[in-house]
């Protein structure tokens, strides 16, 4: 019993445990199902589509969210509720949806319909489908999707598609109408499309024919062929540009080929005719080379900077002016570096803020005005004119002109003008400058004061006729004023210098002249000669008085000489009678006295003859004109002086050259010339000395030389040795107190057109030279 009872209890406990286990398991499964149901509801609540369950009897089960999508206040329960007043669908749309649902219930074919709730801008997409497994087969699930955004995107894409199509059609038309050849290559780089310009360039029938035959615009193959650019563009992923020759219309043209890679692997291309551009570029290159060659020949320095502000060109004067080395300039230095190098070479003005100064010059690249000009004053006194010209390509052209000489000349000119003005105004002469048209341009104070002209009148630059009218009353003879007009016209028009003299009414005298100037003007000068006229008149009167006194003196000397000859002749005659013994025989001593008297009478007679000759003068000396053998005259004169030389124990040497020849003149006077020279030399020589007579000549002249080795004379005595009646100095030893020989020799030599000169040295002797023309 106990065992049975225990067994029953054990079974009951086991059954209860099993039931408890299954209950707990069922609770856990229910909780998981409930959790999944809540998750499904949550997912369904945020799903982009919401379901509507349509039962077989066409009743509708609609979530509140779907009612909101249809604009319903509360969920509809049938199709009539879908078109409720104030919301829902249009009745016609509701009927269409009902028809779709009915058809789905019958055939099981899903449907899709677009509807728009009344009064709302949203679009709803209804997708009908059979009910899922586990529900009645007559039930239908209609999924509602808010397709407003999708519909707007569809409409936008449709509009874009239309625009793209329109743009594609326009681009196609543009490519077809383009005047340049254009083409498209497929991924295999074969021609797939060409335009009409391409067809005309290759002389094809039509585009299809050209594509079919693969006619290329550029001949050749390899790197220079038509596919080289397309291949390079597709490999590099960027457009490729080349310039190749092509034959178009029977003419060789330079074509710029552009190959553009496309995303689909194809390559589009077009060709631009750059033949004229290449020719223009070549002309521009030749022009640039010629321009640079010309700039190298300029004296001004020229530097050209590119748009990147680097030096692209400079001529030789620029390099010399700023001490730039060619190897440094070859690196194309930047503008700032060039200015710094100029500063290092001391070729820039001294400035306190060099960075600021440099920044201002850097602005030349961006200034809008055409050109900038300034002057640099360098420390070493050099002036440089700088012109900065902005170039069309963004570069800058700088011209450096050394104006140092011009500035110096301008300064010198200004100084000369100031000096001229000061000199002009302070001259004693009255000056006026008349232009080529006869107007007075310049005048000095003396000119204005002389004629008492008003400054206002002169400032109007009057003509010479008006000036002549103004000055006419100031002249002693008013008609002489016309002479001023004639002189100015002669100097300006005929370029001839003329002058004269004029007397003023106040008694003053002026000398005037009109001088042509190099610039075509005329200088009219007037000099006050009143004082000089008075001095000239006084000198004339004095000269006349002196000439009269000289004539009286000459007449007196001549008369005295003739008067002296009478007693001298008597003395000479009686002395000769005594010497001849007519008065009885004289003692030896008395005979010596008589001989001395005769000698003195001879000397006195000679002196009187000399005085008479001197009083006559060179122009009054009676002379014969005949051919004279100068050698014979010289020998005769030497023979006459031979006795005197013997008496004084002097060696008289005579050298008659074979070239002495003949002269035209008076033989007696020529003999007296040689006689006076020899007499002077013999008187100056010491006993035992030597006197030389030498003659020679050439085809134009004859020469007579007389020298002695006497005491000579100093320079002062030599200067006056040819003066008439000059007294010898104390140092003239051996010279007579009144020696007229040399003055007479000079007078006779000059009467023959010759010259006479003397060279003497104290203690050595003297040498006299006479030159006579043939």
UniProtKB/TrEMBL annotation:
It catalyses: ATP + protein L-histidine = ADP + protein N-phospho-L-histidine. Residues 559-774 form the Histidine kinase domain. PROSITE patterns: HIS_KIN (PS50109). Its EC number is 2.7.13.3. Keywords: Kinase, Phosphoprotein, Transferase, Two-component regulatory system. It comes from the Bacteria. GO terms for molecular function: phosphorelay sensor kinase activity. PANTHER family: HISTIDINE KINASE 1 (PTHR43711:SF1), TWO-COMPONENT HISTIDINE KINASE (PTHR43711). This is histidine kinase. It comes from Sphingomonas jeddahensis. The gene is divL.
């Amino acid at each position: 019993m106990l065992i049975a009872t225990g067994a029953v209890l054990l079974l009951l406990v086991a059954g209860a445990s099993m039931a408890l286990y299954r209950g707990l398991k069922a609770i856990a499964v229910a909780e998981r199902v409930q959790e999944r149901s809540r998750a499904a509801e949550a997912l369904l609540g945020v799903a982009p589509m919401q379901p509507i369950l349509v039962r077989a009897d066409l009743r509708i089960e609609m979530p509140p969210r779907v009612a909101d999508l249809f604009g319903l206040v509360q969920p509809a329960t049938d199709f009539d509720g879908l078109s409720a007043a104030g919301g829902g669908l249009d009745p016609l749309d509701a009927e269409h949806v009902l028809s779709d649902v009915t058809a789905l219930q019958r055939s099981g074919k899903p449907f899709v319909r677009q509807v728009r709730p009344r009064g709302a801008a949203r679009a709803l997409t209804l997708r009908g489908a059979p009910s899922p497994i586990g529900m009645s087969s007559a039930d239908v699930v209609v999924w509602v999707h808010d397709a407003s955004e999708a519909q707007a995107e569809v409409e936008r894409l449709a509009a874009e598609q239309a625009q793209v199509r329109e743009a594609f059609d326009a681009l196609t038309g543009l490519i077809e109408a383009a005047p340049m050849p254009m083409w498209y290559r497929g991924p295999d780089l074969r021609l797939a499309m060409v335009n009409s310009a391409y067809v005309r360039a290759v002389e094809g029938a039509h585009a299809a024919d050209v594509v079919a035959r693969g006619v290329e615009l550029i001949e050749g193959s390899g790197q220079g062929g038509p596919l080289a650019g397309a291949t390079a563009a597709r490999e590099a992923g960027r457009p490729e540009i080349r310039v190749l020759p092509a034959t178009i219309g029977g003419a060789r043209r330079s074509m710029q080929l552009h190959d553009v890679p496309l995303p689909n692997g194809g390559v589009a291309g077009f060709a631009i005719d750059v033949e004229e551009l290449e020719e223009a570029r070549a002309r521009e290159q030749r022009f640039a080379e010629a321009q640079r060659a010309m700039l190298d020949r300029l004296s001004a320095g020229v530097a050209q900077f590119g748009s990147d502000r680097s030096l692209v060109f400079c001529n030789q004067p620029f390099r010399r002016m700023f001490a730039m080395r060619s190897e440094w300039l070859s690196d194309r230095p930047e503008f700032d570096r060039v200015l710094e190098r100029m500063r290092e070479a001391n070729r820039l003005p001294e400035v306190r803020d060099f960075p600021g100064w440099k920044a201002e010059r850097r602005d030349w690249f961006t200034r809008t005005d055409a050109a900038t000009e300034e002057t640099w004053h360098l420390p070493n006194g050099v002036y440089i004119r700088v012109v900065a010209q902005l170039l069309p390509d963004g570069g800058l052209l700088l011209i450096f002109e050394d104006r140092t000489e011009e500035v110096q000349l301008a300064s010198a000119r200004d100084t000369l003008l100031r000096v001229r003005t000061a000199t002009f105004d302070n001259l004693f002469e009255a000056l006026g400058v008349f232009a080529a048209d006869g107007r007075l341009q310049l005048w000095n104070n003396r000119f204005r004061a002389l004629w008492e002209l008003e400054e206002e009148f002169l400032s109007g630059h009057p003509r010479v006729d008006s000036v002549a009218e103004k000055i006419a009353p100031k002249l002693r003879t008013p008609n002489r004023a016309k002479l001023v007009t004639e002189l100015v016209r002669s100097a300006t028009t005929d370029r001839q210098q003329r002058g004269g003299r004029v007397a003023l009414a106040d008694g003053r005298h002026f000398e005037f002249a009109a001088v042509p100037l190099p610039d075509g003007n005329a200088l009219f000068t007037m000099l006050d000669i009143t004082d000089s006229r008075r001095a000239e008149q006084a000198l004339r009167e004095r000269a006349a008085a002196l000439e009269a006194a000289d004539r009286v003196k000459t007449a007196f000397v001549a008369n005295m000489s003739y008067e002296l000859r009478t007693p001298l002749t008597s003395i000479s005659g009686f002395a000769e009678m005594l010497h001849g013994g007519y008065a009885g025989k004289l003692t030896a001593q008395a005979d010596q006295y008589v001989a001395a008297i005769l000698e003195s009478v001879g000397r006195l007679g000679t002196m009187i003859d000399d005085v008479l000759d001197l009083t006559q003068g060179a122009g009054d000396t009676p002379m014969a004109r005949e051919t004279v053998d100068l050698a014979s005259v010289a020998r005769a004169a030497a023979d006459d002086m031979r006795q005197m030389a013997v008496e004084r124990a002097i060696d008289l040497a005579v050298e008659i050259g074979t070239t002495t020849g003949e002269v035209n003149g008076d033989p007696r006077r020529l003999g007296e010339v040689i006689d006076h020279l020899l007499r002077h030399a013999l008187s100056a020589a010491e006993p035992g000395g030597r006197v030389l007579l030498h003659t020679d000549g050439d085809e134009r002249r004859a020469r007579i030389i007389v020298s002695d080795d006497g005491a000579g004379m100093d320079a002062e005595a030599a200067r006056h040795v040819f003066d008439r009646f000059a007294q010898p100095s104390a140092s003239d030893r051996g010279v007579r107190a009144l020696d007229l020989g040399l003055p007479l020799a000079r007078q006779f030599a000059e009467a023959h057109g010759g010259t006479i000169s003397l060279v003497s040295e104290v203690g050595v002797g003297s040498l006299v030279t006479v030159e006579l023309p043939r």
